[in-house]
Amino acid sequence: MLLLSVAHADLPPELSEETVRFASGDASIAGVVVSPAGDGPFPAIVLIDGSGETDRNNMRDFSIAFAQAGFVTLAYDKRGVGESTGDPEAWYYFSIDDLAADAAAGAEFLAMRDDVSKDRIGLFGISQGGWVAPLAATLTDSVSFMALKSASVTTIGEDRLFERSARLAAEGFSPDEVAESREMQATYQEFIRTGQGFEQFEHAWHENADKRWFSRVYRTDAFLNPEHRYHQWYATVQEFDPVPLLSDLSIPVLWLFGDAEHDQLTPVAVSVDRVEGLQQQGKDYTVHVFPGTDHGIMPIDDPNAFPPYAEPLMQWLNSVVAYGQSP
After folding, report:
1. Contacts of 198 (CB under 8 A, 6+ apart)
2. How does pLDDT run across 17-67, given as a tens digit for each residue?
3. CATH class of the domain defined by 6-154+241-323
4. Considering the entire predicted model, what is its pTM?
5. Cβ neighbours of residue 109 closer than 8 Å, sequence gap 6 or more
6. Which residues in the chain are classed under CATH 3.40.50.1820?
């Protein structure tokens, strides 16, 4: 049974852990491998975290829970974070290509271990990791399955439009205020897409800067000129779309989603619809949606409850690694 609790921060005595380091392009990625008792070979999972300045400890509970279930797990510091080398701002100005290369390198690192079954290595991605994992799976032959939790099956631009609107609505802003915010973001994204219309975005910025929703959407009230690094960076990620990658993959994939009504970060309804479209293409893709749960897929009325996704996740993983096909 998959158990997830902060109490698992201390390593259970039946498990072992090893500090490791592996190369990914020009970066040296540091992390930790947690292993079950015995010689193996065991199935293995690379853990891909969500957005933010995260390190190996952010996935500690999953590292231990999966190892207790019989998997060798690899969790690592994002490049530029903790003991991994790289630009210390890489977590903020992230590159999907770099993040995917790191995850793929992690899978290949596991494939070289004597205690790992070479044909039973998977990826477990959370939130932002749901964009990273499909690309990572195309970069290596070492990945044979993938499980994704609260992963948007949309472009990053679509996700950003959804997230801002859903969050403001949940915080009690009026439909008109939500529409104003969405229109401004759409104006910005059109500039990013075409390189035209920055003047319209600048006008919207100054027109809306004093409105009460503005500070809930924008981190600063300092206007950034068109050449600012942020705009240049966002142009590299806005159109990233996992769907073409997923159309080409031939491995089993599991999606776990919270309730479309309560998850303010993932466009659940659109994502489920797109996965179902991929299923109709004959893909071995499985979807579970958990009513009454949030982005973390925890019950909104009992955030300390046992994770409702734990059992179906473990059943699916056991079926994939045991039989080579999803249930």
Report:
1. 191, 226
2. 999 999 999 999 999 999 999 988 999 999 999 999 999 999 999 999 999
3. alpha beta
4. 0.92
5. 20, 22, 74
6. 6-154+241-323
